[in-house]
Amino acid sequence: MQRPRSYLGRFCHAPERGRVECLEDTLVSVDEDGRIVSVLRPSDDGYNRAMTEGPVESMPRGAYVLPGFCDLHVHAPQWPQIGKALHVPLEVWLQQHTFPLEARYSDLAFAKTAYTGLVDDLLSNGTTTALYFATIHQEATRLLADICLDKGQRALIGKVVMDNPEQCPDIYRDESTDDALRGTEDFIAYVRGLNNDRIKPVVTPRFIPSCTDAALDGLGELARSCRCHIQTHASESDWQHRYVFQRHGRSDTDSLDRFGLLTRHTVLAHGNFLSLGNMEILAARGSGVAHCPLSNAYFSNAVFPLKRALEKGVRVGLGSDISGGPSSFLPDSIRAAVFASRLLDDGVDCEKDYPERGIRDSRIDWRTAFYLATLGGADVLDLPVGAFEVGRQFDAILIDPNARGGSLNLMDGYDSTEDGLQKILYTANKANITRVWVAGRAVV
Ligand SMILES: O=c1[nH]c(=O)c2nc[nH]c2[nH]1
C-alpha cells in the first residue's frame, strides 16, 4: 500500500451552515483512493511524524485551499448558450432558444465539442462535483459521462425525459413514453457499467409540463427500483407553477410526491414558489433544493425564500443553472445568493416602509453561501466531499492571491485570514484558481 500524500498549507472550509474554519500550517494527508486520512495541526500528535513519512507538498505562501465547488444544477447542453437570450419569459426561452439548441445533440460531433469545453470550463472554475441535466439523446448523454470520467470530474448525470407532445416540439421529444423510460434505464445501466463511483446516473424528468403522467409514474417506479438520484425543476416561475395546478390541481411538491419522485435522493431546482407546507414535505422526505439565484432573477418571477427553507429543515445547495444563469463560475452564484437574500429581506418597492417592503429575516451572509456551495451541496447529494475532514474525499481547489490575471487584492497586515476568505468568495476570479483536485487527483 502506498503511503499517503500530504498537503501542507492553509485550509478553509464551512463545517456547518453559518460557520467557517481556517486551519493554518495544516497537513492534510490523502490515501491512494483520494480519501482524507488525517488532518493535523502543528500542535497535534503525529504532525512531525507525518511531515517526514510520505511525500509532502507545500502550498504557495499566502494561498488558500478550499473544498471544490458542488454545482447542483447544470444543463450541460446549454453551455454554448451562456450569456444569450436572457430577456424572454421561461416558456418562450425554452421553446424558441433552448429546445432547438438541445435538439442539436443528436449530432455527436457537436456534443463532443460542447461537452469537452463545458467540463474543462467547470473544472478550471473549481467545480469538482456537478449534477447535470443532459438531453433526451442516449449517445450524447453517454458521451458526457465518458468525458467526465476521462477528465476526472465527479458527476451525476441524467438523460432528460420529455415525452409530452403538448409541451415538447416535434424536433425535441422522446419518441414515446416507453422509449423515454427505456432510455433512462439503458443510461443507468451504461453508467453503472463504467464501474466508477465518481459517475452516477440520475432519473431526470425535465419538469412536469414536459412529461406525461405515465412517464412520471414510470420514473417514480424506476427510481425506487434503481435507488438512483432524481432531479427535476419545481415551483419555478408563475407560468410553470400555475400550469401544474391547472393540470394536477396541486403543487409540484404534492404531485411529485404522488409519483414517488420525492425521496432522500431528490434535487428540485428553483423552488421559488414553495409554500411552508411544501417545505415541510420536502424536509420530511429528505429531498433537497438547488438554489439558482442567477437564473431565478432572469426567469423565475420570484425570489427563493432560502432562509425560510433552511429553517424548515430543507437541505439546500447552489446551482449555476447554466444557461438560465449566465455564469459557469459558482462564486457568481455565491455572490448572487447573498444579494438575492438581501433584496428579499429589504424589499424592492421604495413607496413602502421597512418591514412591509420586504420579508424580514430573509438575509444570509457569505459564510452560509460558502457552505451551500460546498458542504451543503455535498449533503444534498449525500456525497463524502465538501470539507477537510477524515473520511471525506479530497476534492479541493487552490486559490493563489498572487496568480497572474487574478482579481484578488489581499493586504498583509490589514486582512485577517478570514477576511481573505471573504474576499476570495466575493472577488476572486478564475485565474486565482491555480489547481483543482478530485479524489486526490490533480485535474487542473
Ligand atoms: O432554468 C431552466 N432551465 C431549463 O432548461 C428548464 N427546463 C425547464 N425549466 C427550466 N428552467
CATH superfamily of the largest domain: Metal-dependent hydrolases
Which small molecules are bound? Answer: xanthine
Shape: globular
Helical residue percent band: 25-40%
- Average pLDDT works out at 97
Question: Got a strand count?
Answer: 17
Helical segment count: 14
Distance between the termini: 26 Å
Radius of gyration of CA atoms, rounded to a whole number: 22 Å
EC number: 3.5.4.3
GO biological process, one term: guanine catabolic process
Organism: Asticcacaulis biprosthecium C19
Keywords: Hydrolase, Metal-binding, Zinc
Report a brief summary of the structure:
One of its GO terms (biological process) is guanine catabolic process. Keywords: Hydrolase, Metal-binding, Zinc. The protein has 444 residues and is an alpha/beta fold.
Would you write up a description of this structure?
- The protein is α/β, with parallel strands linked by helices and 444 residues long.
- It folds into 2 domains: 5-67 and 386-442, Urease, subunit C, domain 1; 69-381, Metal-dependent hydrolases (TIM Barrel, Alpha-Beta Barrel), CATH 3.20.20.
- It contains 14 helices and 17 strands.
- The protein has helices at 47-53, 90-103, 108-124, 138-151, 177-193, 213-226, 238-248, 252-258, 276-285, 293-299, 306-311, 330-346, 366-381, 417-427, and strands at residues 5-16, 19-30, 36-40, 56-58, 64-67, 69-75, 127-133, 154-158, 160-161, 199-205, 229-234, 266-270, 288-291, 315-318, 396-399, 433-438, 441-442.
- Helix 4 (138-151) runs parallel beside helix 5, helix 5 (177-193) runs parallel beside helix 6 (213-226) and helix 12 crosses helix 13.
- The longest helix has 17 residues, at 108-124.
- The chain starts with a strand and ends with a strand.
- Bound molecules: xanthine.
- It catalyses: guanine + H2O + H(+) = xanthine + NH4(+).
- Residues 64-443 form the Amidohydrolase-related domain.
- It is an enzyme of class 3 (hydrolase).
